[in-house]
Design brief:
The chain is an alpha+beta fold. It contains 28 helices and 21 strands. The strands form six sheets. Strands 15-17-16-19-18-13-14-21 form an eight-stranded antiparallel β-sheet. A three-stranded antiparallel β-sheet has the order 1-2-3, with no helix packed on it.
């Protein structure tokens, strides 16, 4: 890292350091934390980070996320820094990140400090640690758990376990049955003040509605309490009785309609062809009784069997009490009289209010309104709500001790990325991946590899997305940045081992690869590897084609031989040599020889500069690949990799080549280790391939030296190469002189 620089911001003197090509602020003291509000947010590395998916206590992040939107932003960080300064006597303790907090270090000269200190003392006392001088994160967490399972937990909800009075318990059950429940912090169903008030309001409305009937009981309740059953029995058959008398009136109006109104015989023929059920819709749709002009409705005689029981109930509950005595038939006028006697009840019932408590009955409703049980419930709810301040203070204690431990680490992965550049394990790093003889430290959790890759592609980094699994079905996805080594053996389906920051091992399988340059060294060899792969592919194709041709030729020869044996005729001999093919091969060989000769002539013509020629040829082949790789490697950026996970990265977070080499380590033999080069399974070395290659190389060199005249200069006995001189054009013959 570069030397530190300083910068004034208000009355606080900031220190900056350089890492990854970016100036980043140092947060080394409590004063740095308390003055975060004075640091220009343009200098913060991040402006937002998610609550989930970080290697930092998620409960701490949830408590810091005051608006509960799932993200930590600068206003929440700054508010926490100010609050910590108001509570803690020595803010330098925040840098240490200790799990335990001395109660003596809580301020008594500020309201926030006094509240947290009083709550902290309450916590240690409730845990049976009276006289304790320290409180830990575990203590605060246990206190929260105790409060969560206590009946008085400050949420204003009273479950059954919080009550001892039998009347109050009975009323609580009735309230829940009529208007529903609210979940208590302990998880038990209970009621709050709103539910109890809703229930009592329904009871009051129901009682008022009943009083209307009691004032005019003769009209509304002609049978008293039995009016309800009478009206219900009438309503059950009202539509069918109206239908019956309506059909009878039509039959009286026009006798021709009687047959149709009674349903044709074909309906019963269809019924006879299937299994009959009195509850079937086709039976229920038939009239109550036979239709005829001015007929009466038989109540207990020959009626539709599907409605017999309903008519019997109607007779017992409604007809007998209201019309007096037992009747076997009901006239049209009797039906109108019955409906008129219950018209007042029908109008009253349509105005019913407080339906939620109707099942309790008016007697129980009035008993509830006059009982002391409702006052007991209100008292219990108010007592629970009164504990809200204590619960809130205990929550503040938990938040404080967690921030006392984790706040500086959060800042080291938010305001700056010192944990990442110092290789201490950043909160966004998920663990270490071992794969293909290397260890990758820059790994991040991802929810959706496809969605993540869309933005992460802009990081310019070679990324491998992996599915990680553990026994028991636990799964997760990670993206690993590979910044050293070769990519030849990295492909989808390759397996490795992933260790999370808790030390747990996961089986990891590559599911997606985002190809980008890994190193300049890889780029140097890339053209040659591509050429070798092309040559191998061509050889494989030619070998396959030759094998196919040989097989076809053999099959053809066998077929011809079989035909000749069958016909007794000798096979037609094809010409063994095609002069055109020979000529074409000669031209090709000549062209290759000429090109090789020209190349050797140029190369050996360099003389003492031949080594530079070799270097130039290498640079000509590998140079462009290396240049492109170097440019891309300089552009590698951590920002898009984190932005794809929901971060808001504010500054450049480059991964230059030295940092990249440090983030991925390649397997090497330890220093001082004994290494034996004896390999019992090594392939046997044959001399003739090397000798043949050596002879070819020497022949080419000799041809080149001869071609350029170097051999003649070194050894004059060797004839000089003949120059390629074009033959002279033939001269025209001279005309003979004329003879005199």
């Amino acid at each position: 890292m570069a030397a530190e620089t300083t910068k004034n911001s208000g009355n606080h003197r900031w220190k900056f350091y350089r890492a990854g090509g970016v100036d980043q602020v140092r947060i080394d003291t409590g004063a740095d934390i308390l003055h975060l509000h004075a640091l220009d947010q343009k200098l913060w590395v991040a402006l937002s980070c998610p609550v989930k998916g970080l290697e930092l206590d998620e409960q701490t992040l949830k408590l810091l996320d005051t608006d509960a939107d799932g993200f930590i932003r600068p206003p929440e960080v700054l508010a926490a820094a100010r609050w910590l300064g108001d509570v803690l006597t020595n803010p330098d303790e925040l840098v240490a990140g200790k799990d335990r907090l001395a109660l003596a270090n809580l301020r008594s000269d500020t309201e926030a400090g006094r509240q947290v200190k009083a709550a902290a003392l309450h916590v240690v006392q409730s845990l049976g640690k009276s006289g304790a001088t320290e409180i830990s994160v575990d203590d605060a967490t246990k206190a929260q758990e105790l409060l969560a399972h206590a009946w008085l937990n400050g949420d204003g909800v009273v479950p059954a376990g919080a009550l001892t009075d039998a009347g109050a318990l009975k009323l609580l059950a009735e309230v829940i049955a009529c208007v529903g429940s609210v979940a208590d912090r302990s998880g038990e169903p209970g009621i709050d003040k709103a539910k109890l008030e809703q229930f009592l309001s329904d009871c009051t409305a129901f009682d008022t509605w009943w009083r209307l009937a009691e004032v005019d009981a003769k009209t509304i309740l002609p049978l008293g309490e039995a009016t309800h059953q009478a009206a219900a029995a009438l309503e059950k058959v009202r539509a069918k009785i109206d239908d019956f008398f309506g059909r009878c009136r039509l039959a009286a109006y026009d006798p021709r309609a009687e047959l149709a109104l009674n349903r044709p015989e074909t309906v019963y023929q269809e019924l006879s062809a299937q299994a009959l059920s009195l509850t079937a819709q086709v039976a229920l749709d038939l009239p109550l009784a036979a239709i005829g002009p001015h007929k009466t409705l038989p109540l207990l005689g020959a009626v539709n069997p599907a409605w017999a029981q309903a008519l019997a109930d109607f007779h017992d509950m409604c007809v007998m009490p209201l019309l007096g005595g037992k009747r076997t038939e009901l006239r049209d006028g009797d039906w109108a009289e019955l409906c008129g006697k219950l018209a007042g009840y029908q109008a009253w019932s349509q105005q019913r209010v407080g339906a939620g408590v109707a099942n309790l009955g008016i007697a129980r409703v009035r008993e509830i309104l006059a009982s002391e049980a409702r006052a007991a419930l209100f008292t219990a709810i108010e007592a629970d709500a009164a504990a809200a301040t204590t619960v809130a203070n205990v929550t503040q204690v938990e938040k404080f001790v967690r921030l006392h431990r984790d706040f500086h680490r959060l800042l080291s992965n938010f305001v700056n990325f010192s944990d990442f550049y110092a290789r201490r394990g950043a909160t966004f790093q998920a663990g270490r991946l071992y794969l293909d003889g290397r260890a990758c430290d820059l790994t991040v959790r991802v929810e959706d590899a496809g969605k993540h890759a869309t933005l992460a592609a802009k990081s310019g980094t070679f990324l491998a997305y992996l599915d990680c699994t553990r026994p028991g079905g636990e799964r997760m996805q990670v993206a690993a940045a590979i910044t050293a080594g070769q990519s030849d053996n990295l492909f989808v389906g390759r397996n490795g081992i992933f260790y999370d920051l808790k030390g747990r091992d996961w089986s990891a399988t590559i599911t997606k690869i985002m190809d980008n340059p890994i190193s300049v060294r890889q780029a140097f060899w890339s053209p040659y590897k591509k050429a070798m792969r092309w040559v191998e592919d061509q050889i494989s194709k030619r070998a396959a084609a030759s094998d196919a041709a040989a097989t076809e030729s053999l099959q053809g020869a066998a077929s011809v031989a079989g035909t000749s044996a069958a016909t007794g005729q000798a096979p037609v001999q094809k010409p063994k040599l095609d002069i055109g093919v020979v000529a074409a091969l000669g031209v090709a060989v000549g062209g290759i020889t000429a090109a090789l000769g020209a190349l050797l002539n140029s190369f050996f013509g360099l003389g003492m500069w031949m080594p530079l020629g070799v270097l130039g040829a290498v640079l000509l082949i590998s140079g462009p690949s290396m240049l492109i790789a170097a440019l891309k490697l300089r552009q590698r950026n951590l920002g898009p990799l984190l932005d794809a996970n929901g971060w808001a990265i504010n500054t450049m977070t480059k991964i230059n080549m030295p940092l990249g080499a440090a983030l991925t380590s390649v397997a090497t033999i330890p220093l001082g280790a004994h290494r034996s080069l004896v390999d019992p399974y090594a392939e046997k070395k044959r001399l003739w391939p090397r000798a043949l290659l050596l002879l070819i190389c020497l022949g080419l060199i000799a041809a080149g030296l001869y071609k350029t005249g170097q051999l003649h200069q070194w050894w004059p006995a060797i004839p000089a190469p003949t120059a390629n001189v074009a033959p002279a054009a033939p001269t025209a013959p001279t005309a003979p002189l004329a003879t005199p």
